[in-house]
TrEMBL record:
Subcellular location: Membrane
GO cellular component: a single term: Golgi membrane
PROSITE patterns the record matches: P_HOMO_B (PS51829), SUBTILASE (PS51892), SUBTILASE_ASP (PS00136), SUBTILASE_HIS (PS00137), SUBTILASE_SER (PS00138)
UniProt keyword annotations, A-Z: Calcium, Glycoprotein, Hydrolase, Membrane, Protease, Serine protease, Signal, Transmembrane, Transmembrane helix, Zymogen
Organism superkingdom: Eukaryota
Region (Disordered): 669-729, 773-899
Protein name per UniProt: P/Homo B domain-containing protein
Native source organism of the sequence: Neolentinus lepideus HHB14362 ss-1
InterPro entries in the record: Galactose-bd-like_sf, Kexin/furin, P_dom, Peptidase_S8/S53_dom, Peptidase_S8/S53_dom_sf, Peptidase_S8_Asp-AS, Peptidase_S8_His-AS, Peptidase_S8_Ser-AS
Amino acid sequence: MRLPLPLVLLLLLPPCALSSQPPRRSYSTHDYYVLEHLPLGDASLDECVSRLGLEVIEQVGELQNHWLVRRSKPSPELFARTTADPILELLQSFRQQANAGSIHARFEDARLPRRVSSSIKYLEPQALRQRVKRAPPPVHPGNEEVKSNAREVASRLGIQDPTFTKQWHLVNDEYPEHMMNVSGLWEEGITGRGIISALVDDGLDYNSDDLAANFYAEGSYDFNDHEDLPTPKLFDDHHGTRCAGQIGAVKNDVCGIGIAYDSQVAGIRILSGPISDVDEAASLNYGYHNTSIYSCSWGPADDGRSMEAPGYLIQKAVVNGIQNGRGGKGSVYVFASGNGAQHDDQCNFDGYTNSIYSITVAAVDFKGLHPYYSEACAANMVVAYSSGSGNNIVTTDVGKNKCATTHGGTSAAAPNAVGVFALALSVRPELSWRDLQHLCVRTAEMINPDDPDWETTAAGRPFSYKYGFGRLDGYSYVKAAQAWELVKPQAWIEIQPIQIENGTMDILGTMSGGAPITAQGVKNTVTITQDMLVQNNFEKLEHITVKVWISHTRRGDVEVELVSPNSIKSVLAARRRYDSANTGFPGWRFMTVKHWDENPVGDWTIQVNDQGSEGEFGNFLGWSMTLWGSTVDASKAKLYEVPVLETLLPSPQEETVITTSSLALTTATKSFPKPTSHLPTDHGSIEGEATMPAFTNKPGTATPTAQDDAAAPTESIPSESSTPTPDEGWFPDMANLVSSQKWVFGAIGAVIVFGLSAGIFFWRRAVNRRRRAQYSTLSRGDDVPMSSIARNGGVSGQGTKELYDAFGEVSDDDDDVDEETGLTGGRPQDRSPGGLGFHSGFLDDDDPESARATQATYRDEPEDVDHLRSHSTLPSRIPSPSSSGSGDGSWEHASQQLR
Ligand SMILES: *[C@@H]1O[C@H](CO)[C@@H](O)[C@H](O)[C@H]1NC(C)=O
Ligand SMILES: *[C@@H]1O[C@H](CO)[C@@H](O)[C@H](O)[C@H]1NC(C)=O
Ligand SMILES: *[C@@H]1O[C@H](CO)[C@@H](O)[C@H](O)[C@H]1NC(C)=O
């Protein structure tokens, strides 16, 4: 396959050379897309983007062949609110022509559309989204007493930091069994030297005297303002700095010290404004050769009604991280479990915390009790110390010499775990991301043994939804790490989706069929055989993921449980009082670590129940399960690829073919988080508990009432604090703007459509190569997907537009301020007028440096029209409502140029 020289040069550049200086975004003047290019396709990246009227901005973070592309926004008058996305429409029309062409004997007419559409694996519009910090708002200061034991440690180690004796999470004099327990390691000289942790957060005050000496600038970046340094700028940008202090605060005379006080900390700023998937994906791989751990104390809203998972691009970045980060040992992603327990929120409704690639950390307080905010779920791995029962976390704050005394929430638990992992990696840098998880499972210590939430697993370990495998003890962890024998590579067994009573979900998310959820619930069983283990080179079980398709008029009523062959039950979903969504579980993925090291051979039963509430009902349509573990034969290990078409039920027949060409789509539902922290001001003072199971409700016992709904978090928060406290962020109204979920399926549909049609295309092409003359067999394969696509086009476009408009009101901005002021700005109507044109020239430049330089001066004038005219096969009319508008500066204009 011949590639144009400039493209070859671009591909040869190390990825970081392209991504080291991401240009500022201007969502007010441009529409952004992510395009996944197939380098082995027939058309170069250059050609693909120019045919679509786009320009390349940069590679997406560390993801090879994924490109951020953009076009100028057309003038607003030309687009009615319902206008479909013209770029998606244009690509769709290419695909249709390519497919139409292939069923005729002659291919000439379809050559150009085929070249382009066969070279684009994936195209997704980008939208800005806001992530929520999992921090508490400030509260009254904690215990002022000076502790004698902490003093002894300080004097032995020469610690002069003035607030060290208040850092009970380091040395707890009152409850000595409840602390991170790392001072013994410090005395052995284990202080995290050489390890870098990145705080993916709202900035990091590298000017703080407590952080400056440990600040790692090369691994830092501001994805909100697109600047090199993660400077905290908003008045509430103190969260990342406080978390960083817990890990890497310098041992000096300022505030306290970090758990790994000789390690380095980087700041990756993403929470101080809406960002798009492309930047979130880049942030999770930023500096990933040198940075070991990504500390993530944020996620979808913890309101007990959100259910959101990372999209395809972000999943790809995370998988890229665990496969290629840290020299192939894998980036370590640590996520806070969430602060929404009082709203029945559960970390299995958050696709970040229930990812097998994350170490999910919940909180216990300084008495070792469960703080009422800390979320429970089967994906919780360990707990670390944080606020509650009268004490908060004392750490560094934004400012030259400023200390924080009110830090807490699961936000503060995660960095405490990160500190311990940094200590472990400093003595065993070769531990893989899975070794760190194994060490959590094996060394975590049981607390509150009388807590009814504890159960014994088949492997004989105590597990609790609230505490995971228990409290993370720094000393035990690092000692075990020193002696640890590395695990073999990852293996997995995938059970294909099982349809229940002909349950289906199509590409638009429409669910039909399935078994009605009765008072007895609905059960279904699959059998794992010894043979399956052998065939999949599978030795020992670690995580299990379970995907479900459930329709329901009230999602919060649904309960899902998985029971193992050894009768170990994982509650995957328990009742959520405030979740009244009627969108069900459209291929939602749950995760459990409760079966770690269990022998998986035998029958696995899933049971779906609901509350039996009057007027609320649903169907269980189907499920699938994947067992994750270690290989028998490491030399036969495979690299996992992010799967395709994974929310369709049943899975498409040609899936194996499509999977090998690794197509793309997003997972499950997405919604925008509400920017409140969901953690009331009393998070540090309220006494914890150790007497309640995490999930108490039994089917039928708790009928949600109208009052429950009225008291739902969104409505109640304004009354709790009418002026936003710092950690509640800036967008209290944003959630209302996106209350409709329609756009969600629209946007997902847009992605699926192109993933699917590309898949069909490749599959068909592969088939075509095998049986060259049998065109009739090909056309049959086409019918279903293409008709879905045709139906979907308008819907997805509309959805995308709604998405934009919803955010436009709060996030539009002007040229100069860019994304940073997404918060302050204008209206969607402010889109700059001006034409869309073709620009195919800049990649033709032989010098990649100057090619990059020209990106800054994108010209709107078509300049390669002759080149384009030579292809008579382009659509004579672009299928977009915009073409009914005026002729200039629009797609109409572009298509006229083509003719
Ligand atoms: C804390 O570490 C010490 C060694 O410094 C160890 O002896 C002790 O058992 C640990 N504490 C707990 C509660 O595990
Ligand atoms: C990673 O660290 C090495 C050695 O310290 C350094 O040479 C290299 O530039 C760093 N890479 C990045 C991307 O910062
Ligand atoms: C499922 O579909 C098959 C084939 O169309 C049909 O025979 C069967 O009755 C259906 N089952 C149910 C439960 O609807």
